[in-house]
Amino acid sequence: MTNKSVQALGLTAMLFAGVALSIEPAHAASATGDATVKILRAITVTKSSDLDFGKIVPSAAAATVAIAEDNSRVCGSGLSCFGTTTAGAFAVVGTANETVTVAIDNPSITLTDGGSNSMAVALATTTSAMTLSGTGDGSFKVAGTLNVGANQAAGTYSGQYAVSVSYQ
Amino acid sequence: MRAMSAMAAIALSLSPLPGNFAHADTRKSAPIVEAATDISFGMVAASTTGGTIELTPSGVARCTAGLQCLGGERAGLFYVTGPKDYMVGIVLAPARLTNGRGNSLLALPKASQSTMVLDPGKRKNQFSVGGKLTLSAAQPEGAYTGSYEVIVEYF
To answer: Do A33 and B78 touch (CB under 8 A)?
Structure first.
């Protein structure tokens, strides 16, 4: 008996709720919108060769040694140059057919022999922008001009530089 | 119960046709919503760490650290047409964008407003839609597209 009356009460409440909703049905109109985004592959830059000035015999006068992007060398007057030379080279991978810009972060660097002796190098690249290939590949080279001091101390000199490649 | 009765009374007072008990909307000019412009998050360079792109309903994209927003973004635009002084609620459903190569992105659209009081006349009431896009680490490249549903609710 008690159970029954509780059930009846529940039904009344439900009916009431149903009526309350049917008085004001919520209506909705809808539309569909499209969203798009083009995701480009994260660019990777890998060094494929170091900029190498080869071997140099200094003289009593300061002079320069220049390495071009085609690996060729111009040896300053008074200096003797020999050994293999290479331009700096980098491989770029990104999204196919996209244009990227290339920059040398620090175009003026200093090579040191690990001690107190140093030489200045000016870096340059003719590639300021390029379009990646159909497979997303690209490459560029870095030329350099080394300033050899008068009677530059003997030793192995090295230094580092950084490049940046970004989508345009 | 008392609260519910009160709500019903308020609803009734707003109703243009208080005597209508039917479920179907029989009014002549029920509000409609039309899509006018698609959302574009533009071009984004992915990163190895992933991140989010947030497009404001005013059409400005912001990328979190690592991602590079490269431009070309624009907000979505919708028009609501309906009777004067109707109040409508705007609800957006999330979308999954795919690049046709099995990769997907989750987009959460966000409207410039959640409610709107209508002015009379065709296409007089507009709202814009931005959203948030989540990129996974090393998200595969591609042109991603997808659809989202816009629902305009009214009483």
So the answer is: yes
